[in-house]
Amino acid sequence: MSDISRVTQNSASMLMVSDMESDLSGLTLLQEQAASGKALNQPSDNPTGTSEVLSMNSQIGRYQQYATNAGDGLSRLQTASGALNSVTEALNQVQTDVLSGANASASDSSDRAALSADVLSIKQEILGYAGTTYNNKPVFSGTYGTSPYPQGSASGVSDPTSASYDPATAYAYAGSTTPLTRVVAPGQSVNVSVTGNDVFGSGASSVFALLDTISQDLANGNTSALSGSDLTQLQAAMNTVTQAAGNTGSLSAAITQDQTNANDTVSSLQTQVGNITDANEDQVATSLDLAEASYQAALETTAKIIQPSLAQFLS
Amino acid sequence: MSDFSALSVGLSGLEAQQAAENTVGQNVANADTPGYDEETVQLGAVPSTQTIGFYTHGNGPGDGVAVEGVERLTDSYLQSQSYSEQGNQGTLSAQQSGLQSLQQSFPEPSSNGISSQLTQYWQDWSTLANDPSDSSAQATVVQDGSTLASSLNQTSSALSTLSQQTVQNITGTLAQVNQEASQIASLNQSIAQGTASSSSVDELEDQRDQLVSQLSNQLGVTVVNNPDGTVNVNSGSESIVSGNSSQTLSLSSSGPPYSLQWSGDKSTYQPSGGELAGMLDVVNNYVPSYQQNLDQVAQSLMGSVNYLMSTGYDQAGNQGVPFFLGTGASNIEVNPALVANPADLGANASPLPAGSTATNEDGTVAAEVGELPNSQTATLAVPAGGWSQGGSASAWTGATTTTGVEADVAYNQLVTGIGQATASVNNQLSDQQTITTNVNSALQSATGVNTDQEMTNMVMYQNAYEASAKFISTVDATLQSLISMVNG
Question: What is the ipTM of this complex?
Fold first, then answer.
């Protein structure tokens, strides 16, 4: 303005009003930030920041889901692990039965019959463990939502004393050989199940058919088989179950780590989003004080500058 | 010089000062009138007349004072600069208004924008992967997919509405522009007549300049001053007002792209300044380009999810059906067959063996859908005749695949683009407002009313009036003493 010699009241007030409007709009922006607590209220406030926030919010959603997936997988593995430990204990009992059966005298038929019955009941117990479910879905059936060893009228006869005994059908594995997987990190899916086929086998070569054989050998006093092939096969089956239990344990440990990682990523992303979107309260409060003070000063000064006119001094 | 002529000199002084006072009154009264330029009275001394005759008198002091005219203050340089800045500001204001409406259609970042809905949708798929036979997980995928699709529909329709409203605004502004042009032409005629008959046309010129200023804000114009006091107003290479004639502008019927048409030679016109330029920019460039980006988001969503569906199998062991149907953001919808039966989602990588009564717990394909946002690009299925062909598995026949930008990435680019454009126009407009205010203030300084100056003039003219009156009374006293001397 200094280079313009002539000044009129209206031109002066035009500039002052314009300056006050700009003060006021700055003040309003700060008030909005203070009220909402957000520095980023619309994309134009910070286009680059908006892009980052949208992308990070999307990542937060995904990593939260990874943590959920890992949690689901972990629960399944722990359920399977619990069942496998019970199976190991049950097989230990069978081993005890086999050893006492092999050493029992041939005349002690009632003892042998009791041992035989015990093994049969343990078989039922293990069939129960094999059908363990998590969230109403069997954990040893891979990707099929069905009991791994369905027992009942449709299946073959599982009573070894029966003439129509049919272990191939009775113990046929009905699940899938593909284990369930869960995505726990970008592009990384891990197994969250062991299949019944791998743990218990299928049909005539399954652990259930072995237990039937053992119970028959016990009933018949076939000590050579008991101390020979039965014991060897039982120990092999126990090894398989123990290995599967160990396998679920190491999978659990890995997936727990994945879950922790996903949760850490979520927290870290949330902090970064906060840094971009949240207004710095201290800074906003200070700037707001300054802006209010300067707006008031502008109002007072303008009121004083605009007032005087020669008309007031003429009588 | 006779004593009696001295009286008429005094009278001319009284009359001239009175006229000057009247001008002060006019200026003060119009101090706040928009477009009013300060007027000054041009006073001139009347030279003494040489009269040869019985009462011949020689070169005297003159025959008093006369009002030679009333002139208004003008500054044609600042005036034309003001027109031009008004035009720039008009363009930027219209652009800003359009972009801010656009931006409001994309409430981001927030927990209920399309971005959050996409994230939720992908999460639903991942949740379904954890329990593919669960009917509530299946229904959630379908429901959130429908929510997402209808958000895309609504946003697309908001863009169309914005375009329609802007076209209405253009039509309304054109009516004003045509009205103003015809007013300027008729004012030009009055000014030319007034100038020819030497009567005052100052107020008419003020009115006309004010109209040109409005016109420039709406259309962006340049002005050529004619010797007869009239102005020609040009926009682009066409003359909208030439002397006392004007031509009109109308909107060419269909678009986008929309353009304006002159009534004279029927040529089309894309103005480069004024609100009309900004509004045309909104309907011709901003809205179509963001609409296209939004369609890209919808098409990426359709193509990528549908492609994975083609690789999947539902609970009954059938190949998956397309999840989304439609051609773009305006009509994307979830396949009605899936809305009716969410169990038909192709969530699993392989079907169950024939005759199996088990549920399929695989969920690998659902997991792949949930993983889509991890990549910048996605494989898109492109059906032979668009996704509106039908929602059955036969839609896969003849479909090809292509690689495209992933939906979240496309949406992110869209929102960031709008944010950048809006921020840039906001900055430009803020700068332009400062420039316009400064130019207008400078123009007002140069040509407006300074009331202090008017007050000073008022006192000055008042004193001169009193002095003239005193002079008359002195001449009167002189004559009285002369007459009483003769009588005595």
Answer: 0.85
